[in-house]
Design a protein that fits this description.
single chain, alpha+beta, Arc Repressor Mutant, subunit A, Beta Polymerase, domain 2, six-stranded mixed sheet, three-stranded antiparallel sheet
C-alpha cells in the first residue's frame, strides 16, 4: 500500500510537470491521483523519493529547480487576471438566465501564460442557452472583454456552454480514462451563481482525486433581472428559437475546420475549441511517468 502511495504521489508530480508546474504539499494532497491519504503521509512519501526535488516549499521533478521561479511569475500574472475578472463581474449580472459561471483551464489551474485568455464555463437555464449566449457575447463585446482572433490576452473566452440539465461532463470523456477532463472539472472556480449542482453531477472526478474538496458556492436567492422578466414567457420562447436556429446553423458551418472532440454542438451543450489536447496530455503523462521510473531503476 505504501509503495502504491509513493507511485501515485510520483504520478501526481509528473502530471503537474507536464505544465512545468512545481506544486505545494497542499496541492499534491488535494490532487493526489488514485490514493486517499493524509497530508502527513504524502509528505513522508515525498521525503523518501529521490526523484523529487524541493525548493521554497514547492516540489518538482529533481533537476527542475528553475520551474519554481517561473511559477512565481505565473502566480503574479494570475493575480492580475483575477483582478480583471472581479472588475467585470457586472457583465454577468446583466446577462439573463445564468445559473453558474466558473473560470476554468490555466487560470483556474494556477498557471496562466502571459498571453492567456480567461476561459469560462457558462451554465444556463434550460431552454435559454442560445439567448444567454447571445446576450453574454454582446455584453462582453461592448465592454471589450470578449476574446477574438486578434485580441486574446485577458479576454473572456466564451466557448463552453451547458444547460442546467446537462451538467455531467463524464459523457464527453475521450476514453475510459480522461485525466485532463477530470483535472479541468476539479479546478473549476465559480465566480457567479450556485456551483453545488455541477459538482454533485460530476462526483466521478473523485475516482481520480480521492482527497478532493471542491470549491462550492452557496446558493443565494437572486431576483430576476430586467431581461429575464421580459424574456421568460412566449416572446422569450420565440426569441430562443430564432437564436438557436441562427447559432446552430452558423456553428455547423464552422465545425468543418475544427478538430474532432474539440467541438460539441447540441441544444444543451456548446463547446468550441480550436484543438482538443486531452489525448496528447494523457499519452505524454504516461510516458513521463514510465521514463522517470525506468531512469530511477
Amino acid at each position: 500500500m505504501k509503495s502504491d502511495l509513493k507511485e501515485n504521489v510520483w504520478k501526481t508530480i509528473c502530471w503537474f510537470d507536464l505544465f512545468a508546474q512545481p506544486v505545494s504539499l497542499e496541492e499534491i494532497h488535494r490532487f493526489l491521483l488514485s490514493s486517499k491519504a493524509s497530508k502527513k503521509e504524502v509528505e513522508k512519501s515525498l521525503a523518501k523519493d529521490s526523484r523529487v526535488g524541493k525548493s521554497f516549499g514547492f516540489y518538482f521533478v529533481r533537476g527542475k529547480n528553475a520551474s519554481v521561479l517561473k511559477r512565481c511569475g505565473k502566480q503574479y500574472h494570475a493575480g492580475k487576471l483575477w483582478k480583471r475578472v472581479l472588475r467585470h463581474l457586472f457583465i454577468l449580472r446583466f446577462t439573463p438566465f445564468l445559473k453558474l459561471v466558473a473560470v476554468g483551464n490555466t487560470l483556474a489551474m494556477g498557471f496562466p501564460e502571459r498571453n492567456s485568455d480567461i476561459d469560462l464555463l457558462v451554465v444556463t437555464k434550460q431552454n435559454r442557452l442560445f439567448t444567454t449566449r447571445a446576450f453574454l457575447t454582446f455584453f462582453a463585446h461592448i465592454f471589450r472583454m470578449r476574446r477574438s482572433e486578434r485580441k486574446i490576452r485577458g479576454r473572456f473566452c466564451l466557448s463552453f456552454f451547458l444547460t442546467e440539465n446537462s451538467l455531467n461532463l463524464e459523457k464527453i470523456k475521450i476514453a475510459r480514462e480522461d485525466i485532463y477532463l477530470a483535472f479541468w472539472v476539479a479546478t473549476l472556480t465559480p465566480i457567479f451563481g450556485d456551483s453545488s449542482e455541477i459538482f454533485a453531477a460530476n462526483n466521478w472526478v473523485r475516482e481520480y482525486f480521492p482527497n478532493l474538496k471542491l470549491k462550492t458556492t452557496q446558493k443565494k436567492f437572486r431576483k430576476k433581472n430586467f431581461l429575464e422578466r421580459i424574456l421568460s414567457g412566449k416572446f422569450g420562447d420565440f426569441l430562443e428559437r430564432i437564436l438557436r436556429n441562427w447559432q446552430l446553423n452558423r456553428a455547423m458551418r464552422k465545425q468543418k475546420n475544427r478538430e474532432k472532440n474539440a467541438v460539441i454542438i447540441s441544444e444543451d451543450i456548446l463547446k468550441f475549441h480550436e484543438t482538443d489536447q486531452r489525448k496528447d496530455f494523457q499519452e505524454r503523462w504516461k510516458k513521463r511517468v514510465t521514463a522517470k521510473s525506468e531512469a530511477k531503476k
